[in-house]
Amino acid sequence: MATISIDGKHYEVEDGSNVLEAVLGLGLDLPYFCWHPALGSVGSCRQCALLQFQNADDDRGRIVMGCMTQVTDGMLLSLSDSRAKAFRADVIEALMTNHPHDCPVCAEGGECHLQDMTVMSGHRDRRYNGLKNTHVNQDLGPLIHHEMNRCIACYRCVRYYQDYAGGTDLAALGSHDHVYFGRHEDGTLESEFAGNLVEVCPTGVFTDKSLVHDYTRKWDLQSAPSICTACGVGCNTIPGERYGRLKRIHNRYHHEVNGYFLCDRGRFGGGWVNSERRLRQAGAQMSDGCFAPLTQEQAVQRLQTLCGADSKLWGIGSPRASLESNWMLRSLVGDEHYCPGFGPEQDALRAVMTALTEGGVATATLPEIEAADLVIIVGEDITQSAPRIALALRQSVRNLGLEQAANLGVQHWQDAAVRNIAQNTRSPLVEWVSASTRLADVATKTLTLAPTDIARMGFALAAALDEGAGVDGLTADQTTHVVQLASRVLGAKRPLIVSGCSSHDASVVYAAQALAAAVARRHAATRVVYTVPECNSVGVGLLKGTHKDLADVVAAAEAGHIDTLVVLENDLYRRMKKEWVTRLAAAVPNIVVLDALETSTCDAAQLVLPVASFTEAEGTLVNAEGRAQRFYPVVSDVGERLPGWQWLRLAAVGRANRSDLETLMHLDQVLEAIAAEQPQLDGIRAAAPDASYRDRVGLKAARQPHRYSGRTAMYADKTLHEPKTPVDEDAPLSFSMEGESHALPSALRSFVWDPGWNSNQSLHKFQAEIGGALKGGSAGIRLIEPKGQPAPGAYSVPAAFEPPLSGWYLTAQYRIFGSEEMSAHAPGILAVSAGPTLILSADDALQLALAADDGVTLITADGSVDCEVTVDPALPKGTVGFVVGHAHLLDLRAGETVSLEKKPGLMRRSEVIASDGVRVYG
Amino acid sequence: MTDLDVIPTLSPEEIAEIEHEVALIPRRDSAAIDALMIVQRHRGWVSDSSLKAIAALLEMSPEELDGIATFYNLIYRQPVGEQVILFCDSVSCWLRNGDGVKEKLSELLGIDYGQTTADGRYTLIPVPCLGACDRAPVMMVGDDLHTHLDDCDLASLLTCEANHD
Questions:
Q1: Is A780 helix (H, G, I), strand (E, B) or coil?
Q2: What's the pLDDT score for residue B159?
Q3: What is the pLDDT of residues A735-794, one digit of tens each?
Q4: Is A440:A497 a contact under the CB 8 Å cutoff?
Q5: CA angle, corner A258, sides to A791 and A262, nearest 5?
Q6: Residues forming beta bridges with residue A291, ordered by sequence position
Q7: How confident is the model over B9-36, as a mean pLDDT?
Q8: Do A678 and A826 have their domain in common?
Q9: SS3 sequence, A880-907?
Q10: Do A624 and A532 form a contact (C-beta atoms < 8 A)?
Q11: pLDDT at A918 > cutoff 50
Q12: Taking a C-beta distance cutoff of 8 angstroms, is the pair A542, A680 a contact?
């Protein structure tokens, strides 16, 4: 620690940090633009100027830039000296010369860092009378709106986009007074993390396009703490609502899960909750196949009849439904009749659950991923399956360069200097994957192999580290690679093994677990990351019980053991082949489907019940690291919808053995019941404060900022009376501006705001240290901690991959846009999603005379499907890849042998879009 | 995304010259400025399609290369005339009636800064200094420096230049 003096007062601050960080960490105000806690310092905007004095006798001092000046013990500084203030006022005045007076029509207004800093620096009256530079804006795609005139040239966007996120298609163009931040021509930004520009840009150059088109100011947004449901990472988010619609999703800082950033699927994928396909009312299927609407009361009656005392009841849960809903379903139908409803990833997911709970190696937090100095990716295209992890891995490869800089005495936050020293130096990151990936640009080595060969590499490296027998039949190159990598592992300090379910092949996960165990025996600091496909895959996996397979459900149905089947938030067509769903539907007299969106499964149901989405209900999700996290409703008027567990609770009324469920009226009671029944889930109660939480003056936490306006006017089309504040009995949050918004537990923070800091940059006011944990503690709680010694698990080396004699071996390929079920219904995501894509190697494409975007018919044992071709030169010989989760490709399975036929005359997606502007797929 | 198919937009000579520069340095993208100058020497300017081709050849994105190309005033991203006139508008030339000379030149050519004559012969561009302050006011026409412009007959100078070609 160092003692520094600011305006005559003494403070203890962290040694080695920079003055700006230290000043902000002390809760003092110093304006800045180019600095960002995740991007470090470059000293380009000159806004964070302050005065430094040589010694006590020095009364002149000199201007220094806070972000570029290292804290030293005994340092004498002044923030408030009039010369420092005048300097800062001059800088902001210069930065503002070209800035338009368009705050009233700017989407950033009210949460604009530039507005805040301008006010803070005391620049009120514009003296510049000249013409302002104007620019032509670009169309950067369906997600991000571009308004270049507002730019103050702080360079944060390109530093984030290129240096941090690894994007190459956004650059600073031009020079001096004509700098332009954009692409070389109009087009969709390529980075999967482009959406963070919305929060990184200190003003309104990059804004959320969907928000711009359906706009509400930050101060008029009702928000609540939430968890992203678009993958298993569980990023913390802040959805903003007005008029009952989701307006936007912002990042909610959690230093161990997502830090400052989200991926674009998370940021823009929540729009499905506004979709036309949302179920708004319960419905009963009539003889003509149409649904007759039911009131909530009628629906409950019908439900209770179908689930009556002597009804043979089975239930299919869902890895995208909350823990509470899944538990309630399992309790309603009984353990032996409950199926978690996993899809083709089931075997791999079960292997992941074993690895997590019995592998004996800790899962990495976000800072631990970023700190890794050796990364081995076992069979996972992580940018597509768990994008936020990929962004963290992009930071991990910088560690060797940071180390070189540190050896030269350069602090890590000296961003330009560190990058200059590092040049292209990268910490090792090795990928064994089944197709080209988006991390290849930072990988030291990318080996593309069939999944079983990936598993063999994992076992081979594990054996090399354990000085074991090794794996027979590796190629000479593979053997050399394993030997070299083994020695790198020995030299590493913080190795990280990344794997997961994406290959739909359990042997890949077994290999990763064996490898992690072997590495962990060498280094205690070894960490693992396993990805899972959905937001609650691990939560459902943690529920104790027999966990019937879908095949068991079909068998039971066909044996006549099922009267009523309750399907909870699950589209069965995504889980099993069409033929099986048809068989199931034919064999079960009554199917009840509870879901948020209308799915194909609804057509097979006698009763469909509308379920509240993540913006309308409270619940708990367990992410891939086993962290239980709570999400809260942000919409107060949910109409006829109920949370899944509430419907199921009401269904239990007539069940002789489970009428106790009906008494679980509130979420906290459900949590108690879960914890009492399942000790391994005891922690979920502590994931967030319960509904009895009250602040210092006895109020719940506020969902609305103090400036929330239009309460009496916004529903004037429905009633002229000011509506009563809706009551949320389940949550520790109120639908009101009254209540604490500052000294809150982190799990209850609905927005960040501090006097003078209206933008998300106010976050540092809530952090215990810049870039560290929040003052309100970490939200959520880890349910899985490694116990015992690192365990290799199922150690069975699969046979080497042999290309099929005729046809191709199908491999599963995830896509960030399109593979996930719900986000694919968000308009922005839909527009950037891939079509039904088949990935071919260059050789195969040549042989079949196919080029990119050509049509191809893929023939399986069950039938055929038309796809568009994408060529991947790195695809392993004998394999073709298909996009998991695309509506046309749901019946394909990894590991199947398929044949291909060129399909002439397929209308390409680009042509369809060009011809009528409407998308055909999705 | 880099599209390798565009590389043949460049001539074999241009590619050979660029590859020569690449061979002298550790990274391909370090040859960016040289490559831009090579193409500009051959074609007079760097079009969008040339830019994409150079970017593909140097294994960088068009944005990264365009950031470099547009940073330098003397890499022309728009078509220019056969001769580029770089007229100094800095202080020494201004003291020696540079403005007056520029007026005359503009009148003679019928163009202002940033414009090209209708016959496509000349493009007039301001330049901050040509390093010949002792002989101000000065300008460059093509590769030739012209000094003491205040006393000079601009029309005959340009005719001379034309004949000189």
A1: coil
A2: 81
A3: 999 988 888 999 999 999 999 999 999 999 999 999 999 998 889 999 998 888 898 887
A4: no
A5: 130
A6: A285
A7: 95
A8: no
A9: EEEECCCCCCCCCCCCCEEEEEECCCCC
A10: yes
A11: no
A12: yes
Task: Give bridge partners of residue B140 from the DSSP assignment.
Answer: B86, B145
Q: Is A527 in a helix, a strand, or coil?
A: strand
* Residue B66 touches chain A, beta carbons under 8 Å: yes
Comparing CA positions, the residue from A384, A504, A375 lying closest to residue A430 is A375
Domain extent at residue A907:
808-916
Q: Which residues pair with B126 in a beta bridge?
A: B87
Terminal Cα distance for chain B, rounded: 42
Q: Which amino acid is at A398?
A: R
A611 and A636 together in one domain: yes
Residues of chain A neighbouring B73 (CB-CB closer than 8 A): 175
pLDDT band at B18 (very low <50, low <70, confident <90, very high): very high
Whether residues A562 and A648 fall in one domain: yes
Is A756 a member of any domain?
no
- Say if residues B130 and B139 touch (Cβ distance below 8 Å): yes
Rounded to the nearest angstrom, the minimum Cα separation between A168 and chain B is 6
> Does residue B32 sit at the A interface (CB-CB below 8 Å)?
no
Write the CATH number for A623. Answer: 3.40.50.740
Which tokens hold the place of A182?
A: 């954009």
Compare CB distances from B70 to A173, A183, A190 and report the shortest one's residue.
Answer: A173
Q: What is the ipTM of this complex?
A: 0.91
Residues A642 and A726 in one domain: yes
The answer to whether the beta carbons of residues A425 and A372 sit under 8 Å apart is no
Give the gyration radius of chain B's Cα atoms.
Answer: 18
Is the Cα dihedral A187, A191, A197, A199 positive or negative?
Answer: positive
Sign of CA dihedral B154, B156, B159, B163: negative
Please give the backbone phi and psi of residue A489, each rounded to the nearest 5 degrees, phi first.
-60, -45
pLDDT tens across A183-200, in order? 999 999 999 999 999 999
B49 inside 8 A of chain A by CB: no
Give the number of beta-carbon pairs within 8 Å between A and B.
37
Which DSSP string corresponds to A625-636?
T-EEEEE----S
pLDDT digits (tens, 9 = 90+) for A248-280: 999 999 999 999 999 999 999 999 999 999 999
Q: What is the DSSP string of A832-853?
A: H---SEEEE-HHHHHHTT--TT
